[in-house]
């Protein structure tokens, strides 16, 4: 036990967070290769089935002795988690992953700005909105050519991410350790199962291997790395590092999927990353004005 702790402490906390970010976004890129074959529902179900099974074995949550409020909280948390994954994976069928992640990021950014109540943070959200307009190519693309479905799904994923953030903090207060997360994953799996189980044409080795890879890269590994990092890192610094997610998503899209973004899209992404760094840095300036659970990851 002590040996494992010392080995974990030997790795700088920022590197653990960056490792989690890279894992999540490359997991998303892997999911983008699976969505065309089995749909968003099937991809989400495979990810959640594997991730839930792993978490249940590792965490072994207690099922009894919880209040009605606790069950309502974890139920809502699980629904937000499932819908967040379902809408985000749906957006990957219509948008490059870098574009989808950047648009999705508006959800937690807007939530952070509202909760911080700082004028400068609202200005930053305005800059992020301009960035999203640029990255979605709204200004110079005919309306008929815009993937309005993809943009709408990415925005819906952002709204679910904001709900996930709020409910994550409440779940953490109702359940010890990772019990709440494991139980919420069960709810998310059950909620999305009807939408995805029938879209999987065959449970062959390739599909199962990709599903397992997505579960490990997008859920199990990043959650573990972030848990280790947050023991030694301020939540505000963690939030600022998460600002790199759109950029890492674009890199994963380039390396795994061959997706290239234009100059204006890169400018838009830079605006979103800068806005996120400014807003998440609010907690560092005055931690009493922003809850630490704003820095939970999603996607």
TrEMBL record:
Q: Which domain of life is it from?
A: Bacteria
Q: Where in the cell is it found?
A: Cell membrane
The regions listed as transmembrane in this protein's record are: 12-32, 38-58, 70-89, 95-115, 122-140, 146-167, 179-201, 207-225, 237-258, 264-283
Task: Say where the protein is mainly found.
Answer: membrane
List each coiled-coil range.
none
Q: EamA domain location, by residue? A: 149-280
Its topology with respect to the membrane? Multi-pass membrane protein
Q: Which GO terms describe its cellular component?
A: plasma membrane
| Assigned keywords, A-Z | Cell membrane, Membrane, Transmembrane, Transmembrane helix
Family in the record = Belongs to the EamA transporter family.
Name of protein? Putative integral membrane protein
Tell me what organism the protein belongs to: Phycicoccus elongatus Lp2
């Amino acid at each position: 036990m002590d040996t494992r702790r010392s080995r974990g402490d030997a790795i700088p906390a920022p590197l653990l967070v960056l490792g989690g970010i890279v894992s999540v976004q490359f997991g998303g890129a892997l999911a983008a290769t699976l969505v065309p074959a089995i749909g968003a529902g099937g991809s989400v179900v495979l990810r959640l089935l594997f991730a839930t099974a792993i978490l249940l074995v590792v965490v072994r949550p207690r099922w009894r002795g919880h209040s009605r409020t606790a069950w309502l909280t974890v139920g809502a948390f699980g629904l937000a988690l499932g819908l967040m994954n379902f809408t985000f994976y749906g957006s990957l069928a219509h948008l490059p992953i870098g574009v989808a992640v950047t648009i999705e990021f508006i959800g937690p950014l807007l939530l952070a700005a509202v909760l911080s109540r700082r004028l400068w943070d609202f200005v930053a959200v305005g800059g992020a909105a301009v960035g999203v307009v640029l990255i979605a190519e709204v200004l110079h693309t005919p309306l008929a050519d815009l993937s309005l479905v993809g943009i709408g799904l990415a925005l819906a994923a952002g709204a679910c991410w904001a709900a996930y953030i709020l409910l994550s903090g409440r779940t953490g207060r109702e359940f010890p350790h990772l019990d709440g997360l494991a139980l919420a994953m069960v709810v998310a799996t059950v909620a999305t199962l009807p939408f995805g189980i029938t879209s999987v044409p065959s449970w062959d080795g390739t599909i199962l291997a990709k599903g397992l890879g997505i579960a490990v890269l997008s859920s199990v590994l990043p959650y573990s790395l972030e848990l280790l990092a947050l023991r030694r890192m301020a939540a505000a610094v963690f939030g600022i590092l998460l600002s790199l997610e759109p950029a890492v998503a674009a890199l994963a899209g380039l390396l795994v999927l061959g997706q290239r973004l234009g100059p204006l899209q890169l400018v838009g992404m830079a605006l979103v990353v800068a806005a996120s760094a400014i807003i998440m840095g609010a907690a560092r300036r005055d931690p009493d004005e922003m809850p630490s659970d704003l820095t939970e990851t999603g996607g």
